[in-house]
């Protein structure tokens, strides 16, 4: 394994840099910019059993060092993903983490079973924490029992690693995390966006048509780091960090806190090459410090 | 109405960094920024770029979508100050470095053989239309332009337009040209041998599109929507389509045929949600 290689719950990654679901399309939008197979992997746009149109506009707005989104999980559906997108990703040797969501346990299982029929999916990431949909979003991720039910059901439906994406809004996140671990999750992803809102005083209107949206970007990073830090000691399975990571320095914070890999999210909107630059920055850091990424994980020193 | 020729495939998209070459102010609110890009930006009229100042750091976080005014080795943008991002652009000095991502989206559809172009611009929406007008003139097809603004101060680059087109100006306060909105000048120009291209405030474009529909004249609009990425992944720039569902302005637009855009839905979002006071 190279200095950048890591292992996340049985899945070997060439480097610890993934792209976050909902911020990187299906990975095929980058043809003009770079070869996404250079990344540790990509987490797909959240896939549902049927295609979804998403929420009415306005769907995004900027906030200080961050943004709000209320896309509403618009996606092509698992069938079209398997037919149109996955074969291309497979042919290019991209490590694919399929992010999936449903409004019922049965729905999660059905999507997983459809993916199981295809080669080229390396792990399944369960979105039990979307803040922007009425059903099947965040409520699964708030309740340890529900989260465990979904995890266990998907665990039985696939041979592949199962990751569960945590909501920062669960009351007792450690309890949800342990419930997922006990139900057979191979890794946890933390954190999804936090719900926020913005109002325009000129028009006296809420800025997003959905009123509230998921808050992301660098402003979120200290909160995400604290939660990842807590989770790392709450469970034995690996934690994949997400929340305001846009540079190698940001990634290093999370690796040092104990994350086994990181996901670049909102930063890809600012610069489509952001994730690639994180990989390059980590390579330079490891070279300069004479360390491997694996040696850095959890290596933060106490004050 | 015969269908106009299809749009040519857009050129590849690139991420560039480039220093600001020049900033020319037009009155208090408008600025033309040109960038030094020896490699050259190959684009089509109506395409846009995402622009972000390298000195901005993380605030403003997101790049700003801007229609190209010109492309080539000194691509330029017309800026109207409306918020923090455009304020920073309006203050930028030559040498300051920017990230330019582009060219993005789909430009204007080609003018059909035997037709004349009628361009309808509102304020800062003039940028992609001036680009188009210059291109049409280069093809020997001088366009007619209706250019409207609130007052004489809201008609940036009107002199540039006058150089390449037959220009009709309207202002709401009557300080230049005919008093009123663009529709007052549009009426007599909307003959059966024209094709309309429009960019400006959404309500203006909706009104122009409606008049064109009544007159049986093809109309292409350039949409402005909030967006984070500009290249098809954030899905923030959804617009409601007449066929049902949403399309994304950054990849299917910003220039689209007016028939596809459900302006009633689009403009009514705030009201429909019951969130306006």
Describe the structure.
Chain A is an alpha/beta fold. Chain A contains ten helices and 16 strands. Chain A has one domain (6-56, 74-195, 215-296): Aldolase class I (TIM Barrel, Alpha-Beta Barrel), CATH 3.20.20. Chain A has helices at residues 77-92, 105-116, 139-142, 144-157, 173-182, 221-234, 248-257, 267-270, 274-289, 293-296; strands spanning 6-8, 11-13, 17-19, 41-43, 60-63, 66-69, 96-100, 123-127, 162-165, 187-190, 194-197, 199-200, 205-206, 212-216, 239-242, 261-264. In chain A, helix 7 (248-257) crosses helix 9. Chain A is globular. By secondary structure, chain B is of the alpha/beta class. Chain B folds into two domains: 14-104, Elongation Factor Tu (Ef-tu), domain 3 (Beta Barrel); 116-270, 3-Layer(aba) Sandwich (Rossmann fold), CATH 3.40.50.80. In chain B, 21% of the residues lie in helices and 31% in strands. Chain B has a seven-stranded mixed sheet, with helices on both faces. In chain B, strand 7, helix 2 and strand 8 form a beta-alpha-beta unit. In chain B, helix 4 (182-189) packs parallel to helix 5 (202-215). The model of chain B is unreliable at 267-277 (pLDDT under 50). The A-B interface holds A 23-25, 29, 32-33, 45, 53-62, 64-67, 69, 71, 74, 203-206, 209, 211, 217-219, 266, 268-273 and B 12-15, 52, 58-63, 99, 101, 225-229, 231-240, 245-246, 265-266, 269-270, 272-273, 275-277.
